[in-house]
Design goal:
The complex is a heterodimer of chains A (about 300) and B (about 300).
Chain A: H1 15-18, H2 21-36, H3 47-75, H4 79-87, H5 90-102, E1 112-116, E2 119-122, H6 123-149, H7 152-163, H8 173-203, H9 213-244, H10 263-296
Antiparallel strand pairs in A: 1-2
Helix pairs in contact in A: 2-6, 2-7, 2-10, 3-6, 3-10, 4-6, 5-6, 7-8, 8-9
Chain B: E1 2-12, E2 20-31, E3 35-39, H1 46-53, E4 61-67, E5 72-78, H2 101-107, E6 108-111, H3 124-134, H4 139-153, H5 169-181, E7 187-191, H6 199-214, E8 218-222, H7 226-232, E9 235-240, E10 243-248, H8 250-255, H9 257-262, H10 269-279, H11 292-303
Parallel strand pairs in B: 3-8, 3-9, 6-7, 7-8
Antiparallel strand pairs in B: 1-2, 1-4, 4-5, 9-10
Classes of the chains: A mainly alpha (about 300), B alpha/beta (about 300).
The complex binds adenosine-5'-diphosphate (ADP) and magnesium ion (MG).
Chain lengths: ~300, ~300
């Protein structure tokens, strides 16, 4: 139960913790864009071009990795938690590798990394798997940085604030914010509840870790059914409570805690903007520039 | 036959910023056949303590032994790092070797607060026989045990095929408790089993536990109701801030002036009445007050 994807909030007071949640969310989006930009030039045919862009891509991803590593160190995020979240993704990665291999590319001899029986495995298959892997690690890292340095409530405020413009196209931003914050609010409660139920069932001899598939299935049922039951009860209780206190989704709401913007936040925002600029610049001219350079020489 | 905890310390959120020691060097021995109460303020660590007894929580340090008539099994013995320093963060051993955890769980049945949340099967009988089946009984044997347990908690055969979810709160709780009793544990741990019941329901529930106790099962009961402690238990442990501050018979505990004044724990009703009378200058001898009857005797004696 402890190995949830992405870190839980950890109560330190580091510079990263103190950044405004809005800045952190924007920063996270920028990083995600940087991580997922399709750096490989689509349609390039020459082996040389492909090699070049592959190298550049890994250099760029490496730089992103270094930056995120520094952010993690500043924010005191445990590396163990990253490994733990990766653990749940191994299967996923394996599947991607398998798919990449099985897509028939008929590599030429020079493109073949090695032969697996009758199957020729191309460099590109290995590289694309490596891409996915590296990107996943990077995404997990940056999300962990944000989620473990920002209180869930702050995160919701941030999201709600950033979504605010959508209000003008009749999207119920407040309600979405409320739903997100309720969902986040109930994660720890659900975890506690499931721990409690697991303990009750463990007392009845259930072994959640070992056992055959059928036993495992049964033990999961013995957790899920009570969890659903109690969640429904909690949800309807909550709805009653909110109604009794006069909750009206249409009403204008005030905040108990206000987000306060400090000059450091502006600074961080500028840094992020520069980073974004660099990434875009690299994307537009990066590979081309390199090739250009090569051609001139 | 007995269970012994020795120097058991437990930390929540070990090795994180919110690390906190909840149990501090607990020594506790529970003999076969006892009906023992654990009392103490909310948050003093009672629930944490009882969960050590069947290995649901494994302590940071400490030893748990399980003694049979002939054999003595050390379930675990986790030692402190020699360089342990109270001020610095304690060093934790990584691998905690635990033997026979399943056997321990079979021997020590555990009923949590609001146990009705553990029900999940489609009918009462299968739900109750789930535990025994997990501990290796065949389906028929398990159902036989389940029927006996249901009978004991007072649910007749008309309940067997009903869905546990359509029962009343009290009945659900009985089903859940039957689910533990059906495993035939030697020790039954009850963590505030009567929370949220009306007085009659509470009384019935306690009579049930007394019946179970009479079959030779050891009962460990966490409760806030001192009248229950007085009436049913032959031993009472007071847990205060993660330590066991006293072990005695209920009467010794409640008659002790200094204790009742100091702690936030209430006394049983008749002891409170006796104390009030003493406060109002009726020279009753508190040591002679053992029940409502002896209180009445004392009042009579004093008035004469
Ligand atoms: N899962 C948990 N994580 C962190 N702290 C806990 C957890 N469970 C209990 N505690 C803390 O341990 C202390 C003892 O709790 P508990 O054993 O439940 O007390 P009691 O049953 O006597 O009310 C409390 O202060 C509580 O806040
Ligand atoms: Mg408790």
């Amino acid at each position: 139960m402890k190995s949830v994807i992405f870190g839980r909030y950890s109560n330190y007071n580091t510079p990263i913790h103190r950044i405004d949640p809005r800045v952190k969310i924007i920063g996270m989006i920028v990083f995600m864009v940087a991580i997922f930009l399709p750096l490989t030039k689509v349609g390039s045919t020459s082996q040389y071009e492909i090699n070049m862009s592959t190298a550049t891509n890994f250099i760029i991803l490496g730089i992103i990795f270094l930056i995120q590593l520094i952010l993690m160190l500043i924010g005191r995020i445990s590396f163990i938690s990253i490994f733990k979240s990766m653990k749940t993704m191994w299967f996923f990665l394996f599947l991607i590798f398998l798919l990449n291999i099985l897509i028939p590319t008929n590599p030429t001899a020079e493109q073949t990394a090695f032969n697996l029986g009758t199957l020729a495995i191309s460099y590109s298959a290995i590289f694309s798997t490596a891409y996915v892997f590296v990107r996943l690690v990077l995404v997990v890292m940056i999300t962990s940085v944000v989620t473990s340095t920002t209180k869930p409530m702050e995160l919701t405020f941030g999201i709600e604030w950033l979504l605010y413009p959508l209000k003008f196209v009749k999207i119920p931003v407040h309600e979405i914010g409320m739903i997100i914050s309720l969902a986040l609010r109930y994660i720890p409660t659900l975890m506690e509840e499931s721990e409690r139920i697991m303990k009750s069932q463990a007392s009845r001899g259930v072994d959640f870790k070992n056992g055959k598939f059928k036993e495992k299935f049964k033990s999961i049922t013995s957790l899920i059914v009570p969890l659903f039951m109690s969640s429904f009860i909690k949800a309807s209780d909550l709805a009653d409570t909110m109604e009794a206190r006069g909750y009206d989704p249409k009403a204008k709401r005030t905040r108990y805690r206000m987000l306060s913007w400090r000059w450091v936040d502006t600074l961080w925002l500028i840094v992020i903007a520069i980073f974004l600029g660099l990434i875009i610049a690299q994307c537009v001219i990066g590979t081309n520039y390199m090739l250009l350079l090569m051609n001139i020489i | 036959m007995s269970i012994t905890l020795k120097k058991v310390s437990y930390y929540y959120n070990q090795k994180t910023p919110s690390q906190r020691q909840v149990l501090k060097d607990i020594d506790l021995n529970i003999q076969k056949g006892e009906f023992i109460a654990l009392i103490g303020e909310t948050g003093s660590g009672k629930s944490t303590l009882v969960q050590q007894l069947n290995g649901l929580l494994i302590p940071s340090f400490g030893k748990l032994t399980f003694e049979d008539d002939q054999t003595k099994t050390v379930i675990y013995d986790i030692q402190r790092e020699p360089s342990y320093d109270k001020k610095l963060n304690p060093v934790f051993y990584k691998d905690k070797k635990i033997k026979n955890i399943k056997e321990l769980r079979k021997r020590v049945g555990m009923v949590f607060q609001f146990p009705e949340y553990q029900l999940f099967e489609t009918n009462v009988l299968t739900d109750v026989s789930y535990g025994p089946k997990n501990f290796g009984l065949k389906k028929e044997e398990a159902e036989e045990k389940a029927k006996q347990a249901l009978e004991l908690v007072g649910l007749d055969s008309s309940y067997f095929k009903r869905s546990p979810f359509e029962l009343s709160g009290g009945e659900k709780r009985k089903v859940a408790i039957a689910g533990i009793i059906a495993m035939n544990p030697d020790y039954l741990v009850l963590d505030e089993p009567t929370a949220g019941l009306d007085p009659v329901g509470e009384k019935n529930m306690m009579e049930l536990f007394k019946k179970i106790s009479d079959t030779g099962t050891t009962i460990i009961l966490v409760t806030h109701n001192m009248d229950i402690v007085m009436e049913y238990c032959n031993k009472v442990c007071v847990v205060e801030d993660g330590r066991i501050s006293s072990i005695s018979t209920p009467l010794e505990l409640f008659q002790n002036d200094s204790f009742v004044k100091l702690s936030s724990i209430d006394a049983p009703y008749f002891i409170k009445v006796a104390r009030e009378l003493i406060n109002h200058n009726l020279p009753i001898d508190i040591k002679k007050v053992k029940s409502i009857k002896t209180l009445a005797d004392e009042i009579r004696r004093v008035i004469k």
